[in-house]
Each structure stands twice: as C-alpha cells, then as structure tokens.
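# nightly structure sweep
# worker-07 picked up a monomer target from the shared queue
# config: single-sequence mode, recycle default, output format = structure tokens
# input follows
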Amino acid sequence: MQKNDLIGSPQHHASQIRRETNHECAQSQPCDDNDVISYSHEGERTVHDGRDPRPQTPTSLRAVVTFPPNSTITKPSRLSELLGCRHLPALDGLRACAVFVVMAYHFGFSTIPGDLGVTAFFVLSGFLITWLLLKEFDRSNTVSLRDFYMRRLLRIFPAYYVFLAVSLGFDHYRGDPRVHDLVLPGVTYLMNYYNALHGHPPTSIAHAWSLAIEEQFYLLWPALFLVLVRRPARQAVAVLVGLVTLFAAWRSFLFLTGRVTEAYAYNAFDTRADILALGCLLAFAARIERVGVWCGRLTASSALPLITAGLLILSRTRGSRDYHYSVGFTIDALLVAILIVQILLLHDRRLWRWLDHPVLRYLGAISYPLYLYHIWGFGLARKLVPAGPILARAAAAVVASIILASLSYYAVERPFMRLKARFSTNGATRGVRSWRAAVAPP
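# output follows
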C-alpha cells in the first residue's frame, strides 16, 4: 500500500491528532502541582518529567480533524483535551486578576466587590487540586496522601510562617495588645474561626482567614477524593452536588435564622465549603461526555464570558444582604466555575489571549506572596507617597506589593519548591514547578 493510500483513513487521522496534540502540549509551560492554593494564592500547574514504565495508551488526543463516518476513533471534547495536557492556559492570568480585585478593595476602592476575588480563588483551588489528584490517580491507580501533604507543606508553610513571624513580630514591637491573642489562631491555621467569632477585627493577619480555609480543605478533601474517584464519574458528581447543596443550605439556615453573624457566615469553613466543593465538582464533571457538549455551547462565542462576568457582578452587587450570605455565595461560585471553563476553552481567541501575557503569568505565579504581603505594600506606599492623586498612591502600593512578593517568592518559596520533587509519585511530578498556590485571598 502506498503512503498516500492512508490519507483519510482512521489510522491517518489518529496519527495526525497525536502530532497536533504533542505539538500544542509541548508549547505549554510546565506547571506545578502546588501552585494554585489560596489562590489558592498560588496557582498551580503541572508538569511531568517522569515516565511510567508501563505501556501507555494516549489519554488526550487533540481532535482537530473531521472523522469519517466509519471511523472507530472517538473525538474527545475540547475540555477533556485541555485537561489532559500538562498546563492549563489562562488560569495564571485569571489568578492575577483575582488578587488585584482583592487588593483594589483593600486599598479603599470599596465599590469593587473584593470578595469575588476570594470566591475565584476558592473555586480555582478546588478545581486544580482535584485535577492534579485525578491525573495522579489515572497514572498510578492511587494517590499518596503522604506525598500530597508534604508537597502542600513545602509549598505553603515556609512563606506563610515567615509572613506570620514578620507581621506578629512587628505588632509586638509597636505594642499592639492583640498580638498575643493572634499567635495561636495564626500558627494553627484557625484565623478564619478567630475572625468568625470576633467580628473579623482589622488585624495585621486578618486576611489569613482564607488561607486557613484552604488548609482545612487540604486536610479533609484527599480522603474523600479517594472514595469518590473509585466510583463512576456520574456518582462522584452526584455526591458533590449533594455536598454543595448541603453546605449552602446549612449557611442559609444559620444566617437567615439569626444564629450566626455576617462575620461567621463569611469566615467559617463550614459556611464556605460549598465554594471549594464546586471547584472539585467541576474537575469531576469535566470527565462526563455530556458536560463537554454543554461546555461547547457555553463557548460558542468569544463574548459569552463577558455575559457570565456581567451576571457575576450583578449577583454580587445587586442582591440583598440575605441573598448574599445565603445562596448568593453559591451562585457566585457557580458563575465563576462557568467563567473558568469559558476562559480555558477560549484562551486562544483574540479577546482572551491577554490572560496568557507573560506579565500576567508572572503576577499569577506570585499571587500567593502578593496576597500575603499586599497589606504591607500598602503601608509602605502610604509612607512613601502620603499625598497626591489616589491613582498615583495606588500605583505605588501595587509596585511595593510586587517587590515584597517577589522577594518572598525567590528567597523563601523557590528553595522549598525544589524539595517537592522528592515527594512525587513514580517520578511523575519531578521537576514540577509547584502549581502556584491557589490560595484564596480575601
């Protein structure tokens, strides 16, 4: 048979898909399994240097051709193709946007709903952590809890505890009487419940509440994941839908009946867990074929994410207080999840390519320390630029925050990130650049 006789055959289409897939995925930058955290504050992406010695069947064939009617090859959804790659595009840029929403609110632009940045980080964290765990399970048919917790520890603890020591040390130096009350909740990642039970006082580490929620999520989720991942995807999704509904109903009951304050509804893990669960739900749901079809409809036009963003802003700014602290949190998170899917699938369209700009990708990479130190950056800016136009002072605050965050990233975080490869599974995550903490900044 001549070479040209193969053109148009299923074998030809399969080889073409593999070439296209490998080329596109190879262009992606490595990501890391620990960077999404509270934005999760970092945003992780994942890169695998290791090779499983067992024969592998290609799991992500990028469909870029039309299959003949008699072809036996199944065309995967665009979303499943992206999730099969080593790096998820545009999410670093989305993470950067989220942290700047938080920073703008904390700087004094009170009309900006800063908590939407936190919601985005929580959804991203649940989604990315689950995505990474699913990839590990697909590779080895298990998940090493020891390695997972060690990677998390090396990615999050060093920067956090340096920040904590600097902040509380300075509070002690200037004679803040509250510093002794903050040590225990700060060290034990319980700032969310400290804020919840004390009315969210404006302390130097008050914004660590979201990091506390992330850590509580990391502690509990892997064990439940191991139960769900062995079930069919539809069953796992059904369980997660039930959990989202349960947590949303619990928060609504507590708040609408006056049993808790706004501070508790905003800060407590048991009243915000539905947002993280929605991110986990998104990762599992992406494995269902019908969901891929729905996602295609949500991305029929490059302008559709603008509609989703508009609905998100309306939900957050036009709803009543009772709506916001009951079902509003859940609806906002659902819209964020839809926006994440749309941005992922439309990242290569002209309207959204800016999310992969190198500057935004860098800001997404340092989003964790940027969240930690932006309050310090604002304080420095006020001393250096005590007067003048508000935009000039805001620009000085941003520059100061980026400098502090970069120092933390390179001096504190990067050395520990290199240790994470020792806790990879079958070498699959060696060389991985910890997926920038999906840490959620409040």
